Amino acid sequence: MDDASRGTTDAIRGTTNGTAPVPLSVLDLVTVGTGSTATRSLRTSVELARLAERRGYHRHWVAEHHSMPGVASSSPAVILAHLAAHTERIRLGSGGVMLPNHAPLVIAEQFGTLEALAPGRIDLGLGRAPGTDGATAAALRRSDRLNEGADDFPEQLAELTRFLDDDFPDGHPYSRIHAVPGPVQGPAARPPIWLLGSSGFSARLAGVLGLPFAFAHHFSAQNTIPALDLYRDSFRPSAVLDAPYSVIGVAALASDDEREARRQVLSGALSMVRLRTGRPGLVPTPEEAEAYRFSSLEQEFVNTWLTNIVHGTPDAVRDGLNDLQKRTGADELMITANAHGGEARLHSYDLIADAYGFPA
């Protein structure tokens, strides 16, 4: 492995702190709760990135979502530029950018710019889902042929990679087009590409291409182990990885006592009930969630949803994360906190860091 490849591998593989079994990272959905605003949520994201950097979390990712009142992360590149200006060391990335929503050249330019702003700290995570409902996806893509975008994902990925590397062959229609900032301006690093998924398609593709893989365990827990097994079985060594490297997104929330943790995650569960039944809105308060009368079908969904959220006291959350890592063999855990307010989310990450003996 040459020095460039070794540098890319080092950027992918995380650093373990304290007694954690693997590196811990942050998935920030920039949630907006009832009574709050997008401005306040984005300020919380800055606070969270600073906390994560200070306490020893490895990376901080934001995810692309659209037309969801309770989420303010429709523009990952914009948010990441802001976070880069307020941090110094932590890796920042997309978890992920939904590639079929965009022209590959646009993403190459955005993340080339981010790499220039924060050299050696940017990850480019890519998904093939729209990150929204069908009507909004059609508005984003100015097309109602949504399946074509997902089916063309491998071709879009190849095109994006060539733009990032500035290596279209002679005679290609794009051979004279350059993504800037980028290699055409001189020697330049580029962000590592990650594939994201909640099923087997991206797991297999990531394995075949020798790329790192991130799985959305936090909303597709039943598919986690099959997808990771498929990724590992499909893996072929590449210039960036000589062995598989997998991250799983996991919903986890720690509080000073178990009852308060339950109150906080119940608000996230009610938010998901409303989203899944076509009534998306701001994340409700714990009081609103406690007073809500769930139907029998909604209660069944909530019970299942909550079993996949690691929540409780710091020690209980630590034990739950350890067990999840042992069951899945994940190389890194990326924690997203389901709660109404920013204060509860920030406190949870602090408590988890304490439970693992991270730097104060």
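^ that was protein a. below is b, sequence first then the tokens
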Amino acid sequence: MGSDNSSFVEERSPGDVTVTNFCIDKYEVTNAQFGEFVKATGYVTVAERPLSEEQFPDLPDEQRLPGSLVFEIAKPGVKQVSFLSWWHWTTGANWQHPFGPDSALTNKSNYPVVHIAYEDALAYAKWSGKSLPTEAQWEYAARGGLDGATYAWGNEYSEHRANTWQGIFPFFNTKADGHLGIAPVGSFAPNGYGLYDMTGNVWEWTTDFFQVGHDRKSHQINPVALNQSFDPKKPDESKLHVIKGGSYLCAPNYCSRFRPAARESESPDTGTTHIGFRLVKNLASSTLPLMSNNNGTTD
């Protein structure tokens, strides 16, 4: 796990870990799949609920309206923007209305569902009889058998192998990969294990709490960090989870986290226009062969 060839300290140092056999979804969970869950259960996502008075006691009522974080490209002519100013809290933004109340999922049924908080992903996982992946499972799957390779497809960056940002972030996107925003699942070639969009498109939740580096996981079987989290960039936040894979907003000039080793911390109660998830099913036997099937899962 991890990389010593990265400028991101949180990816160091590589640690050898073991994972027993598991199944993982070929694709990120889509709007259509999440819609089936909501229809069957009546579930209401975090982004669709008002902010709690207990958690945010100083906010006036009008600022507790349901919403989520939406990305907005820098306005034309602007030459410099402050850090993270491209994110805007948007009332009415949620999985059904990704860019606010006036947006919809028309012709987006096969796109990854977004604005999903950690508990939303857990609720869907429980309903479907699966689990969120550990970071170790996710990274093993993302590598597709290419141990030590920089990308899920090899060592050379390609703007046509994943849905990433081409151009200068956050000012302009050339769409060299054919997509300005999120792409339908399966739009790019799979990795060596037949898995799609393991890097790029949308970030994906894992069960692990975030810690810098991999020292605590090295030489373990099925390691998972569940005790506590700490990110020196977010010292006042607790219970941060690891997200993996980068997204359509990752550019070579900014972020560059469209790599299996890449990782970032995320607050569990935060949904955005670039975070989704996929699920795993752990196997009782650790001796099953690796094979592909036709039901959307790789064994």
